[in-house]
Specification:
Layout lengths: L12 E4 L7 H14 L3 E4 L3 E3 L9 E7 L5 H14 L3 E6 L3 E3 L6 H9 L20 E6 L3 H4 L4 E3 L2 E4 L2 E4 L9 H6 L3 E5 L3 H4 L4 E2 L2 E6 L5 H16 L5 E4 L8 H12 L4 E4 L17 E2 L2 H10 L3 H15 L9 H14 L3 H17 L8 H12 L18 H8 L9 H10 L7 H29 L20 H14 L4 E2 L10 H8 L5 H10 L8 H14 L4 H15 L10 H13 L11 H4 L2 H17 L3 E5 L25 H15 L10 E4 L9 E6 L3 E6 L2 H6 L7 E2 L4 E5 L6 E4 L5 E2 H4 L5 E6 L2
Parallel strand pairs: 1-2, 1-18, 2-5, 5-14, 7-11, 14-15, 15-16, 17-18
Antiparallel strand pairs: 3-4, 6-13, 8-9, 9-10, 12-13, 19-20, 20-21, 21-26, 22-25, 23-24, 23-26
Length: 779
């Protein structure tokens, strides 16, 4: 863990999604508005050269240059100058794990395709040449080769097909087409073969993104030279590291990056922590990008008892139409088996090949059948309870209990000994040769891909009692967080990771924070939700699981909008894979889904559909404002996603990646501006040397107040579960003693409160004007 006291730390960041329709020049025009909010840094989505037209930039094609479509390096430097003139720095989103697998645009891959394994760029990628018979499989054809062969053309030293271009091996351009195809260092194939035949490492299950071996010092140097130049020139002051779990050795990579930047950068990693999993303390970073904070903040505003009741209502409503019973742990395990045996079949095959070679070369490990090794790999992978193992601590992840569970899949006990071999290999206990290191790294990389695809992209869409809990890093089986647990979490951040990132909405969240807040209120009134579903039941749905998910999505979104709800609901059913999928779409089912959304969730206004539903609006607002204030004042460096300084309702990407736009202020904007300006003007109250102190209320409604101070000078107090509070009679005589002194209301600049044990403040008075309070003690 790096001490950040020596470097300039952000007080708050603002994420901008760049693209051809929002380049550096547009970002520059937004700078005055963003500086006025009180942020200290702009956080830019990836800026290196990417596939032309890319809306996100994660499909990097050339690390040597800044993306021309955004304005090039001159445009980036001009943006940095504009930002600096307004007191802002820049943070870049860095993508070390993968590049676009584009033969036309990826300069390094193009040379590998032309020159084969002897290319100096071949070391950039994890390619198993032997598995492909000496060739790299390119699963890019829209159909089987015989179906598209006649559309292929040779022009000079390039083979073309429907806009795609493939470089030709030297001396092959004049061969007959069939001979020419067989003579290349690559094999063009139908895209469906990627699932089982792929022989290069990719990003998750996306064959369009090829993994990069940044563990190789030469590859690191080549892929980071431009970014390091920008850091050295003072253009860039911080880095967000995308998907470090995809790297062979995340810690080694981060150590090299820290050394290369000379300790001049604030560095956070997109590390998804599961449950109580800690961020490795040896990593030289300021912390995570903040998904762990998102889970704790959202959980703080989720009613535990009501969430359990809602899960019961969900199971009764959905019946067998969901994922066979509707319990989270079982759903996640089934999804893991589905992904590891289908979408990640080529990855487990690669691991099996490596394990087979190791066993064949080691007399102690011989005579394990390939099928037994592959079964052991699959059974252990589905039992990894977090994203992956690291250099140390693997025994706590791949436990003896996990091994016993994996062995139960074998009918013959003698065959089950393959599990012990695979576990030892995955823990690095069998040796330290190149193949051993390769297995350890690939097992961990595959584990992270499995976790992401099976949990985030499958199970989260199959188990949906409370959609607000189905967010990256979340635990839908236990969505609520008790105040004491939240305080303990914040104390750990203040002690160990005071400069970590915190977020509520990102470019990857499945629902923006404001949408999640609307959904989370339903945990306080599960029976009202059941009644609301009864009111709209006359609109027939293809199945009850879809009906529940679509109506809850619409409720959180807050207004009928078939153009935005339709694609989000379609994506949810494809990701769930219960009736249709991305690769095997069921056209009839998908038409029924579209018709249902158009007739129901996309047409009927749920918020206001009944008196009881309409009455939830003030409680939804309390959730939104409470979560916002907590995130902006808790330990860590808060990030605002573009447009979230005001009311912002967005669904899963690409809906949440609409360009930045300045909109009208609201009460949320005023709250954001007050909190961020406090952080900017008084960084010592929130920085690495600051303190976090919980405050407790007394009285019948005490559990409904969450309060804390930062360095005894700034006080945050928010209302929790306001619907339950109202049903119980309100604040009554509940009060809270403020630390001694004169406290000023930072939101209106008028109200004053006196602190001290003898003058507790009535919470009815503290929250008289709004459900949150931000106070500053007069020095």
């Amino acid at each position: 863990m790096t001490s950040s006291s020596e470097r300039a730390l952000p007080t708050a960041t603002y994420r901008l999604q760049l693209g051809p329709d929002f380049p550096f020049a547009a970002a520059g025009r937004a700078v005055p508005h963003l500086a006025g909010l009180g942020v200290s840094h702009l956080h830019l989505s990836p800026v290196l050269e990417a596939v032309p037209g890319s809306a996100h930039g994660y499909d990097v094609t050339d690390h040597r240059s800044v993306r021309a479509e955004l304005g090039g390096e001159a445009g980036l430097r001009a943006l940095a100058a504009t930002a600096r003139a307004h007191g802002l720095g820049l943070v870049l989103d860095l993508v070390p794990n993968h590049m676009a697998a584009s033969a036309r645009h990826n300069h390094a891959l193009r040379e590998v395709l032309r020159e084969g394994p002897d290319s100096p760029y071949a070391r950039w990628f994890d390619i198993d040449w032997a598995a492909g018979g000496g060739r790299l499989l390119l699963p890019v054809l829209p159909g089987r080769l015989p179906e598209v062969r006649d559309r292929m053309r040779v022009t000079g030293d390039v083979l073309t097909l429907d806009g795609q271009e493939f470089p030709l091996r030297e001396g092959t351009r004049d061969l007959p087409l069939d001979e020419l195809l067989d003579a290349q260092w690559y094999r063009l194939s139908w895209w469906r073969l990627a699932r089982t035949e792929l022989n290069y490492r990719r990003f998750f299950t996306i064959s369009d993104l090829i993994g990069v071996r940044v563990e190789d010092p030469e590859v690191f140097a080549a892929t980071h030279a431009k970014v390091l130049e920008l850091v050295a020139d003072g253009i860039v002051e911080g880095l967000r590291i995308d998907h470090p779990d995809g790297l062979a050795d995340p810690e080694g990579y981060l150590e090299r990056l820290e050394a290369a930047t000379g300790g001049r950068c604030w560095i956070v990693v997109e590390k998804i922590l599961t449950g109580a999993e800690p961020l490795p303390g040896s990593w030289p970073v300021a912390g995570t990008t903040g998904y762990d904070a998102l889970r704790y903040v959202d959980g703080l505003f989720t009613d535990a008892v009501g969430a359990a009741e809602l899960a019961d209502v969900y199971r009764e409503f959905v019946g067998r139409a969901g994922d066979r019973g509707g319990y989270w742990e079982a759903t996640a395990r089934r999804a893991a088996y589905k992904v590891v045996t289908h979408e990640l079949a080529s990855e487990t095959a690669a691991l099996t090949r490596i394990a087979g070679r190791i066993c064949a070369a080691d007399p102690r490990l011989r005579d394990h059948a390939p099928w037994a090794l592959q079964t052991a790999i699959r059974e252990l992978l589905v039992r990894v309870p977090v994203y992956r193992t690291y250099r140390t601590g693997g025994e706590a992840v791949l436990t003896p209990e996990a091994a016993r569970g994996a062995k139960a899949a074998f009918a013959v006990p003698e065959e089950a000994t393959a599990v012990d071999v695979i576990r030892d290999l995955a823990l690095g206990a069998c040796g330290d040769g190149p193949e051993h290191r390769a297995f350890w790294a690939r097992f961990a990389q595959t584990s992270s891909a499995l976790r992401a695809k099976s949990v985030e992209d499958t199970a989260f869409y199959r188990y949906t009692p409370l959609l607000s809990a189905n967010e990256v890093g979340g635990d839908p089986g236990h969505p609520a967080v008790a105040p004491d647990d939240f305080h303990a979490y914040c104390a750990r951040l203040a002690r160990d990771w005071p400069a970590t990132g915190t977020v509520l909405s990102t470019h990857d969240t499945k629902r923006s924070a404001d949408v999640r807040a609307g959904i989370a209120v339903l945990a306080q009134c599960p029976q009202r939700w059941a009644e609301l579903l009864e009111e709209v039941s006359e609109v027939p749905a293809p199945d009850p699981h879809l009906a529940w998910t679509a109506w809850q999505t619409a409720f959180g979104f807050g207004a009928p909008d078939p153009d935005r709800l339709g694609p989000a609901v379609l994506k949810s059913v494809r990701e769930a894979g219960l009736h249709t999928s991305w690769t095997e779409p069921d056209a009839a089912y998908e038409r029924a889904v579209a018709d249902f959304v158009a007739a129901g969730p996309g047409r009927i206004p749920l918020r206001g559909a009944s008196e009881s539903a309409f009455a939830l609006e003030p409680h939804i607002r309390a959730q939104i404002l409470g979560a916002t204030l907590v995130q902006l004042t808790m330990p860590g460096v808060p990030e605002l996603y573009q447009n979230t300084e005001r009311d912002y309702r967005a669904l899963v990407d690409p809906d949440n990646r609409a360009p930045f736009a300045i909109g009208p202020d609201d009460d949320k904007t005023a709250l954001v501006r007050a909190a961020l300006r406090l952080r900017r003007d008084h960084p010592g109250l929130f920085g690495p040397s600051s303190t976090y102190t919980p405050l407790a209320a007394t009285g019948p409604a005490a559990p409904h107040c969450l309060a804390f101070t930062r360095t005894d000078r700034v006080l945050t107090a928010v209302t929790r579960l306001s619907l339950r509070l109202a049903e119980a009679g309100g604040w009554q005589d509940t009060a809270m003693a403020l630390p001694a002194g004169r406290w000023l209301d930072a939101l209106d600049g008028v109200r004053e409160f006196t602190g001290g044990p003898d003058t507790p403040v009535k919470l009815a008075e503290l929250f008289e004007e709004r459900p949150v309070a931000l106070l500053v003690r007069d020095a």
